[in-house]
Write a structure and sequence with these properties.
Elements (H helix, E strand, L loop, with lengths): L2 H14 L2 H8 L3 H15 L4 E3 L4 E3 L1 H14 L1
Antiparallel strand pairs: 1-2
C-alpha cells in the first residue's frame, strides 16, 4: 500500500464527505479510494468512518487522525 496515497484519499473523503467526490478530485475511481481507505483502516486497526447508505461521518478515531494528518500534509 502506498501510505501517502491512502492518507491523501482519507483526507479527501473526510473533507468532501463522499468517496465519489474524493475519487473525482484525485482523478481515480471510487473503488480505488475505497480500497485505500480500507487498507489504511486495517493498518491502523481502527474504523475511520461510520458508513451507511445515506451518510458518511468520521468516527472519533477518524477525527483524531484527520487532525494529525491534516497538519502533516500542509
Amino acid at each position: 500500500m502506498d501510505r501517502l496515497a491512502a492518507i491523501e484519499a482519507f483526507v479527501q473523503v473526510a473533507e468532501t464527505g463522499s468517496f465519489s467526490e474524493a475519487a473525482r478530485r484525485l482523478r481515480t475511481s471510487k473503488s480505488v479510494v475505497s480500497r485505500q481507505v480500507s487498507a489504511l483502516e486495517a493498518e491502523l486497526g481502527a474504523r475511520l468512518f461510520h458508513r451507511t447508505t445515506r451518510s458518511l461521518t468520521l468516527t472519533e478515531a477518524g477525527q483524531g487522525y484527520f487532525s494529525r494528518v491534516g497538519q502533516i500534509l500542509t
